[in-house]
């Protein structure tokens, strides 16, 4: 998981621990935070292992959790099995003229959400990260940028393969 800090702020292990403990405490988020989780689509269990404890802890707050997802729908059964509060989880699929970044900014600014998760296919620009951080600070919330790891993508079969044409098989 990669946490976004403005360029002027340095990070050492003590401050990283302090931020992690600040986010997970029930009275947390006196200041907002934007973090990025780059996950492997081939290992969804690892993502759940990292993400679920944080979401379960944030579920103890009185605020909602917003999932801005692509076309997949969250399963009520999965939410229950994962220990996430059904009455505090909202999902919105992004479609239409508003981008995921814009939707995250609007949601983070409201202060109604303890966490806003947004799924992206590409990296988020530095200016959008700054806008997200300002919105998270305004709403005292956590913004999670969820992005698949495209650098270590292992396809099921080779992308480029040699085709041998033979009259024996056709």
Structure description:
The protein has 170 residues and is an alpha/beta fold. 34% of the residues lie in helices and 20% in strands. It contains 5 helices and 6 strands; from the N terminus they run βαβαβαβαβαβ. A 6-stranded mixed sheet has the order 1-2-6-5-3-4, with helices on both faces. β3, α3 and β4 form a beta-alpha-beta unit. α4 (100-110) packs parallel to α5. The longest helix has 15 residues, at 44-58. It is globular. The termini are far apart. Residues 4-29 have low confidence and may be disordered.
Give the overall average pLDDT: 78
Strand content: 15-25%
Overall radius of gyration: 19 Å
Going across the major beta sheet, what is the strand order?
1-2-6-5-3-4
Morphology: globular
Query: How are helices and strands ordered from N to C?
Result: EHEHEHEHEHE
Q: How does the major sheet shape up?
A: 6 strands, mixed
Overall number of strands: 6
Treating each run of at least 4 consecutive H or I residues as one helix, how many helices? 5
Q: What distance separates the N and C termini?
A: 50 Å
The secondary-structure class comes to alpha/beta
Helix content: 25-40%
Unreliably modeled segments: 4-29
